[in-house]
Structures are given as structure tokens and as C-alpha cells.
Amino acid sequence: MKYFFLAMGFELTVLGNSSATPVYNRNLSAQVLKVLEHFFLIDCGEGTQTQLRKFNISINKINNVFISHLHGDHYLGLLGLISTMHLFNRDKELHIFAHPDLEKIINIYLQCSNTVLCYPLVFHSLTYDKSEKIYEDKNITVNTIVLDHRIECCGFVFKEKEKPRKINKEITDKYNIPVYELNNLKKGSDYTDKKGNIIRNSELTFAPSKPSSYAYCSDTKYCESIIPLIKNVDMLYHETTFMSEKQDIAVEKFHSTTIDAADIAKKAQVKKLIIGHFSARYKELEPLLNEAKNIFKNTAIAEEGVTYNIS
Amino acid sequence: MKYFFLAMGFELTVLGNSSATPVYNRNLSAQVLKVLEHFFLIDCGEGTQTQLRKFNISINKINNVFISHLHGDHYLGLLGLISTMHLFNRDKELHIFAHPDLEKIINIYLQCSNTVLCYPLVFHSLTYDKSEKIYEDKNITVNTIVLDHRIECCGFVFKEKEKPRKINKEITDKYNIPVYELNNLKKGSDYTDKKGNIIRNSELTFAPSKPSSYAYCSDTKYCESIIPLIKNVDMLYHETTFMSEKQDIAVEKFHSTTIDAADIAKKAQVKKLIIGHFSARYKELEPLLNEAKNIFKNTAIAEEGVTYNIS
After folding, report:
1. How far is B81 from chain A (nearest CA, A)?
2. What is the separation of C-alpha B246 from the centre of its chain, rounded to a whole number of angstroms?
3. Does residue A126 form part of some domain?
4. For A70, which residue in chain B has the nearest alpha carbon?
5. Inter-chain contact A72–B280, Cβ cutoff 8 Å?
6. What pLDDT, on a 0 to 100 scale, did the predictor assign at position A8?
């Protein structure tokens, strides 16, 4: 039963949904995507290590950090997190995917504190001219989404790979199929028995669940060029710094309104939209939610501490 | 009545008492000293702006920030605070007193986020070879206290200046002393009336209250050279990262134990000691307090959110 639970994991936990400054108990941008037992940290605003602790996410499980851009509200928590990992004697690699200038900032930070980390920090510099695949393991790929912000900025789309077909144990037992054949069946092969009879794969296996996908888009002005990259994703996080009445300010500051985000969600035909990165001017968030829902019904607030099952 | 309340102000509010990493709802080093209506921020660990908001201290009232050293747990919150002040359209100068390398860090941070602050940031580089006066206004002086830590580090001693004598209105009215003489009386002058009679100042005024003083010492190993600088202060904050059983580790890491701090308080004959900068290994703080109290009775935990009246 436990294994089944773990295998389900494509879950997002939101740690912060405030833009620029922490207000009304809202924290700065940070999210954790859990894929099986792998934890991916997406942005890391000030206070992220406190939020991780609050929501019982072990910092030692985080091996990959993706930083969208170098406005402080999206990365200042990373410096303290790096130090805390050092304090707790981490030995595993920590991979950071970010703008190359972040490496300079981390290096000057470590130099000034006279710290030589006890674990390897592996830095992966992002580029911002076109979408690129920046990460791959046996379960997922991560591609950048080039956004349109005041400084170089990208989002990230996490896509599960095609999963193996599931063995129909009742049928494979009936045909006495040997264990060493199961991997081939999972890959879709038919089975030929000793007498040369072919048993179709579709009889021996079930179709796997559809691969899950999640796209994170913060910060950006309305930007239709991202639509092909996030088309049909199971869940889209899109920033909504402002309500639609502040459209002019949104454009000026390279941010999005609720309607911008909902429009993008609708045009990209995503399954679900969660919105965040709210301006400090909004104490109540329901008006923002309602505005977005008018255009894209399956919208929710990206609530801190809530874990969204994307599977 | 209000004026009387304000005039009383020499108050310290503790915002964080955790060392290195935030744990058990304990935050990183930061304190606000309020002298009359002037707010001095002392260290600024990650999360300080959230703590300021939590305890209703307006960030706009902070004009001077004193950073002891460049370990992240003592200054990483400053970068976000600088940005929040910008977001809220500050126009007053912000003065930062810190190691010169912090200016480099702030500059690279601002460059990377393509930010030109809307207010003047005035940087004052500290030196670490001897104590120096780094700040003075009509009410107080601030001197550094050179500490013995793994990197260059100093504490700060805030001393109120001698206050003017208080007019005894009943007596000055009796002698019909003109208003323009009152300032001279406050400074201690006698009064000579038109007939040449001398009325002694001691008859016309009350002695002012004794100037208050506060010393902040974090981080440091046991360091007797600081004693002359903090002699007789009304309140001393001294770090106590470890209990006495961890004396070896304290020395190795250039930190103090409870007993080190209490010894210093006793030798410096301070009025009150508050202790903080607790290691993440201690969930309960009472044992640390008890150890310190065995040596210096008037000791308290530097509790977050508590305001200590030093007057």
C-alpha cells in the first residue's frame, strides 16, 4: 500500500504566494514539486527554509533547485538554505538551475562568510533566448519557458515520461509467463510462447496512467509565445500580481493580471490553473480568484501549505 | 502624558534568538533598539521584515542598521528589507553600518535585479582593529566592540548622552524666571536675578535620570577585552550558542557558552544580561538560562517579541 502511495506522487506544495514583500502572512515565491520521492524546489524567496520546516518537507530531500529570475523575492532564501544544508552536514550534490549571475552572488556570499561548503554545489546556467531542456532523469524532463519580464526570466515545465504498461498478473500467471519477460511486456512487447503462439500485449497488460505535467510561470507580462510550451498541462501556475483594473501597471511592471493568466490557461487548454504572486495591495484574494474564474473556471488560489495532487 | 511616554523610550525589542538556522519557531538574529522615536536595527537575519511586521514595527521608522558581521544569519534579511523599502517608495536615507564587503553584496544584488533604489542608501564601512565611535546624534552615541569570531565581527554599545536637568516649575515660577533662561538652567547654570542675587541651579532643577546604555555582543568566543567597553551598561545582550558542556565546540567555532556570557556580565558589572543566538541542538532553553543564572543572577532569555525597557 505504501508503494502504491509513493508511486502516485506528482504533487505540488505551495510555500509562498506573495509578490515582492511578505504581507498578511503570505510568504514569498517558493514551491516544491514531489515526483515519486524526488523533491524539486521551484524558486526560493526569503523565508523558504522556515516554510519547508513548517510543512514538514525535509531540506535534505531537495537535490534540485530551479530559480526563475534574480529579483530578490524569488531567490533570497536560497543563500540561507545553502548554509543550513552545510550546517546539517549534507554530503550530496545540490544542483541549482538559474541565471549565471546567481553563481557570482553565491560565491561572494560564501567568500564573505569564509565558508567552504561540505557538499558539492553544482551550478547550471540558464539561457533565455529560447526554451531548452535543462534536466532529465528516469521519471521526468524539465524545460524552460522563456517569459517576458523586466529582467531575464523563465518558467519551468515539468513533464513525466511515458510510464511502463502495467502487468495484468492474473493473465500473465495464466500463460505461465516467466519473470524475465515482464520488462518486455511493460515496454509493450507481445509474448511468444514455446509453441510459437503470439499473445498480444494488450491482453497481458493494462495501459499506464497518463504522464502528468506541471508548468510554473512567474514573473511575466501577458505572453502568448508560452502557449505551445504549456499546452494541455495538467496544472499551470501563472502569476497574477494584479487585478484587471491595474492592467496599465501590470504592463508597465512586466506582470500579469488575473485575466491575463486565465486567458493563457484557456488558450493553452490546461486542466487546472492556480494563481499567485499577489501584490501587497490585495488583502483579500477572493476578488482575484473570481475574476480569473470568469474566464477559466477551473482556477484556484495557490494556497500556502496546500499540496495539489497533479497525478 | 504622551510626551512623557515617548521620553521614556530606551527600549529593545528582540526579533530573533536562533543561531545559524531558524528552528522551533525561533528566528535569526535581529533586534530593534528604540531611543525616543528613533529605531535602530541591530543585525538583520533572514525573515527580519516578517518579524518587524509581526511586532508592529514600521520599517519606515528604521533609518540606521548595524550589522555585526557577514555570516548569513546576521544580515541576509537586509537585502529583502532594502527592496521592501524601495517598493514602499521610501525617500529618506537609510544608513548601513557594516563590513565593507556588504556594500559589494548589496551592489551586486541590486545590479542583478536591475534596481536603482528610490532612496539614498548611505554605507558606513566598519573597521575591526579597535573600538570606534560610528554614530552620534543629539541623544546617543554608538561605538563598536571588537569581538573574537571566525570572521571580522563587532558588537555595538549604545549610550545615551547626559540628559538636561529637569526644571522645577514651582520654584522657577516663584522666582519669576523668564522663559529664555530655562535652557541655561537645564544645562546646569545658576540664575542671577536683577538685584544680583544668585539662586543655585540645584534649587531650580531636578537631577535628570541616568543615561541608559545597551551593549550587543554577537558572535564571539569568550573575550575579556570587551569588558572595559561594556562596563556597567544597563543591559548586555551576549550570545550563548552553547551550554557549558560544549565548551570545546564553542572555542573551536568561536562562540560562547552560557557560562562565558555570564562571566563577562559579572566581570563587567552590567545591570542585566539577556542571552540568545541559541544552537539548533537546544529545543528547551531553560537549562541554558539556569546555567547562566548560577553565575549571573539577573539573566533572562532574549525572547522574541518581548520589549525590554532599558531606561
Report:
1. 8
2. 28
3. yes
4. B113
5. no
6. 54
Q: Which of B21, B22, B105 sits opposite A108 (nearest CB)?
A: B105
CA B154/CA A49 separation, integer angstroms:
27
Are residue A108 and residue A221 in the same domain, yes or no?
A: yes
Cross-chain residue pair A80–B79, CB shorter than 8 Å: no
For residue A158, what is its C-alpha cell?
515539468
Q: Are residues A218 and A201 in the same domain?
A: no
Q: Exposed, middle or buried by CB within 10 Å (0-12, 13-18, 19+), for A296?
A: buried
Question: Which listed residue (B43, B73, B219, B263) is catalytic?
Answer: B73
Q: Which residues of A touch B (CB under 8 A)?
A: 20-23, 27-28, 46-47, 49-50, 53, 70-73, 76-77, 79-80, 83-84, 87-88, 99, 101-102, 104-105, 108-109, 112-114, 150-151, 280
Looking at every residue in chain A, the average pLDDT score rounds to: 94
Q: Give the amino acid at B281.
A: R
Residue B229 lies in a domain: yes
Residues B32 and B139: their CA atoms lie apart, in Å, by: 16
What pLDDT digit, counting tens, does each position of B76-87 carry? Answer: 999 999 999 999
Q: Are residues A178 and A232 in the same domain?
A: no
Q: Which residues of A5-23 are buried (b: 16+ CB within 10 A; e: fewer)?
A: eeeebbbbbbbbbbbbbbb
Cα–Cα distance, B275 to A62 (Å, whole number): 33
Q: How far apart are CA B124 and CA B121, in angstroms?
A: 10
Segment B107-148, tens digit of pLDDT: 999 999 999 999 999 999 999 999 999 999 999 999 999 999
Q: Is residue A308 part of a domain?
A: no
- The residue from A206, A237, A267 where one domain ends is A206
B106 and B149 fall within a common domain: yes
Amino acid at A302: A
Q: Which of B97, B219, B223 is nearest to A114 (CA)?
A: B219
Q: What is the mean pLDDT of residues A269-295?
A: 97
B72 with A79: Cβ contact below 8 A = yes
**CA atoms in the 13 A half-sphere facing the CB of A248:** 1
Task: Give the span between the Cα atoms of A103 and B251, in whole angstroms.
Answer: 32
Partner residues linked to B143 by β-bridges: B133, B157
In a domain, B311, yes or no: no
Cα angle: A9, vertex A14, A18; to 5 degrees: 165
A81 to chain B: closest CA residue = B21
CA B254 to chain centre: 22
User: What residues form DSSP beta bridges with B35?
Assistant: B10, B38
| Domain boundaries, position B51 | 2-163+209-303
In this structure, are residues B191 and B223 in contact, taking their beta carbons and an 8 Å threshold?
Answer: no
* Nearest residue to A271 (alpha-carbon basis) of A309, A233, A214: A233
Check if the beta carbon of residue B217 is closer than 8 Å to that of residue B225.
Answer: no
B268: left (phi over 0), alpha (psi -120 to 50) or beta: alpha
CA distances from B57 to A46, A256, B17, B32 (A): 19, 31, 17, 9
| Residue B53 CB-half CA count within 13 A | 14
Give tens-digit pLDDT for B147-204: 999 999 999 999 999 988 999 999 999 998 999 999 999 999 999 988 899 999 999 9
Place of cell 540606521: B64
As given in the structure block, the three cell numbers for residue B183 are 535652557
Q: How many domains does chain B have?
A: 2
Which ipTM score applies to this complex?
0.91
Are A61 and A32 part of one and the same domain? yes
